[in-house]
Design a protein that fits this description.
This protein is of the alpha+beta class. 16% of the residues lie in helices and 35% in strands. It contains five helices and ten strands, in the order H-E-H-E-E-E-E-E-H-H-H-E-E-E-E. Strands 1-3-4-5-2-7-10-9-8-6 form a ten-stranded antiparallel beta sheet, with helices on one face. The radius of gyration is 18 Å and the shape is globular. The protein starts with a helix and ends with a strand.
Amino acid sequence: MTFEHLRDWIGRSESVSDIAAPAALERLAAILDHDTPPWRDGEVPPLGHWLYFLPRARQRDIAEDGHPHKGGFLPPVDLPRRMWAGGSLIFHRPIAEGEAITRRSVIDDVVSKEGRSGRMVFVKVRHEIATGSGLAITEGDDIVYREAAAPGQVPPPGEPPTEQPAWHRPLMIDPVLLFRFSALTFNGHRIHYDRAYSREVEGYPGLVVHGPLSATLLVDLFLRHTGARVKGFRFRGIRPLFDIHPLTLCGVPTATGARLWVTDHAGSVAMSAELDAD
């Protein structure tokens, strides 16, 4: 399939409905190791909507990597590695626990690029999450497809943060946490729980930490230190994180919210983010 044919997917849309069930939020609090979670009682926390609208592909429609076969809503990009590169969110109004919610998703763009590791294809997806009271969240996702790692390929060196954190929380992400987050989000991608597949097929040194998990941990860091309401969040994945090394969540409060980042075991920034709050 040619790249130009992939651009035929631009403008495709789908809509799904769900209920903001509180049980999913209780499981999220358990994964984040909270006795009493630091978000507002009775509301879905920022990024908590990721626990809903989960994929519904039948088992016979699952590909080798654990994702549904390509060519449904997302375009059938002929590159083997798929990751969440980043995103941006605006929180217009809170979602109450138990509230009926809908999500309309649209493919906004499909772009091919050449990087240091080879060809990449970026797919931009826009979501609008609404309740009976109107639009609650506007979200843009950047999904990247990449070539398989060449044998012996060494990743480029990372960059250290440009400032010292006011908040920091070291963590060791173990396989149990990765498995529980995969289960909570119904994410079958094998790079997060199947070590042999992650290493031997996709060429990673260990299990890969979910991009949404890193983003959720950064927002959780902010909530642990403030009582502010999150109004916007923008994040970018810079380099993958793995279960074989510790990571550190970092943040600095700003006049409008916070700057947040995750560093890997070598002190390089793996994800950066900006957060707007009231």
